[in-house]
C-alpha cells in the first residue's frame, strides 16, 4: 500500500544552519505531496505542498521539490531559526483520494 | 475567520465506556476528516465526511464511528473503549476538493484508564 518514510529524529541544529529532512514515498498513480508542521500543544499546520512531478512548494523559507524519479520530497531551509523548532510531517494524498498518509514525523530542535 | 474547534480538549474515560468527540469546521468547509495520533503508530486516518456522507474510511474497527451534520459539524464516537484507544484525536476541515489543504484543530487528548 501507499506509505511515507521520513528520516528519524530528533534533528538538532544551531540557529542559521541549513536544514534537510528527507522524505520518500511509495504510491501508485500520481499522489499529491505535503509537509505539515506541528508546534507543541497544537494541531498540524500545512507548510507547503506540491501536486505534480517537478513542482516546488515553498513557504516561510522552506522548500520541497516533488521528484517522481526518486520518489522523494525532501524539506529544505537555508537558515533555520529557534522558532522553527517543531515536529515536521511529510504526507501524501493518494490519487483520487480524500485522505492523507503521514510519515512518522521528524522533531527539529534549533538551539540559539 | 475562526479555525477548527474541537471539544473537549481533554477526556479521561474508563475501559468499556464510550466517548463522543466534537469538531466544528471552518465556516464554508464541507469536508471533515478525523485522525488518531499516538507515539507508536503516528498519525492514522480514521474517516472523512463530505456533505453528511462518509467518503473514505481508514482501517479501524467498527467501534470507531462518526457522523456529520447538515451544518458540517462532525462527531466521532468510540464505543467499548480500550487502553490502546488513548491518543490525540485530530479533526481537520477543508473545502473538500481534491488536494484542498486540510486545516487541523488542536485535538482532543483521550486517556483511557
What does this structure look like?
The complex is a heterodimer of chains A (112) and B (113). Helix content of chain A is 0%, strand content 50%. Chain A is globular. With 112 residues, chain A is an all-beta fold. In chain A, strand 10 and strand 11 form a beta hairpin. The mean pLDDT of chain A is 94. In chain A, strands 2, 5, 6, 10, 11 and 12 form a 6-stranded mixed sheet that branches. Chain A has a 4-stranded antiparallel sheet with strand order 3-9-8-7, with no helix packed on it. Chain A has strands at residues 3-6, 11-14, 19-21, 23-26, 32-38, 44-50, 56-59, 62-65, 75-77, 86-93, 101-102, 106-111. Chain A is built from no helices and 12 strands. Chain B is mainly beta and 113 residues long. Chain B contains no helices and 11 strands. In chain B, strands 2, 4, 5, 6, 9, 10 and 11 form a 7-stranded mixed sheet that branches. Chain B has a 4-stranded antiparallel sheet with strand order 1-3-8-7, with no helix packed on it. In chain B, a hairpin with an 8-residue loop joins strand 9 and strand 10 (103-104). The radius of gyration of chain B is 13 Å and the shape is globular. The mean pLDDT of chain B is 95. The chains are: A mainly beta (112), B mainly beta (113). Chain A binds chain B through residues 32, 34, 36, 41-46, 49, 51, 89, 93, 96-105, and chain B through 4, 31, 33, 35, 42-45, 48, 50, 55-56, 58, 90, 92, 96, 98-99, 101-107.
Amino acid at each position: 500500500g501507499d506509505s511515507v518514510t521520513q528520516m528519524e529524529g530528533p534533528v538538532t541544529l544551531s540557529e542559521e544552519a541549513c536544514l534537510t529532512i528527507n522524505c520518500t514515498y511509495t504510491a501508485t498513480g500520481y499522489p499529491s505531496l505535503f509537509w505539515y508542521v506541528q508546534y507543541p500543544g497544537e494541531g498540524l499546520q500545512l507548510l507547503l505542498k506540491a501536486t505534480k512531478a517537478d513542482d516546488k512548494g515553498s513557504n516561510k523559507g522552506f522548500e520541497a521539490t516533488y521528484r517522481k524519479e526518486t520518489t522523494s520530497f525532501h524539506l529544505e531551509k537555508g537558515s533555520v531559526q529557534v522558532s522553527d523548532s517543531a515536529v515536521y510531517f511529510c504526507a501524501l494524498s493518494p490519487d483520487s483520494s480524500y485522505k492523507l498518509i503521514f510519515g512518522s514525523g521528524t522533531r527539529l530542535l534549533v538551539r540559539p | 475567520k475562526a479555525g477548527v474547534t474541537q471539544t473537549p480538549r481533554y477526556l479521561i474515560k474508563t475501559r468499556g465506556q464510550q466517548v463522543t468527540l466534537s469538531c466544528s469546521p471552518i465556516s464554508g468547509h464541507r469536508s471533515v476528516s478525523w485522525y488518531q495520533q499516538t507515539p507508536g503508530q503516528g498519525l492514522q486516518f480514521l474517516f472523512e465526511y463530505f456533505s453528511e456522507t462518509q467518503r473514505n474510511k481508514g482501517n479501524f474497527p467498527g467501534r470507531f464511528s462518526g457522523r456529520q451534520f447538515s451544518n458540517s459539524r462532525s462527531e466521532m464516537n468510540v464505543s467499548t473503549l480500550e487502553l490502546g484507544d488513548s491518543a490525540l484525536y485530530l479533526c481537520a476541515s477543508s473545502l473538500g476538493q481534491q488536494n484542498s489543504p486540510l486545516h487541523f484543530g488542536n485535538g482532543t487528548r483521550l486517556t483511557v484508564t
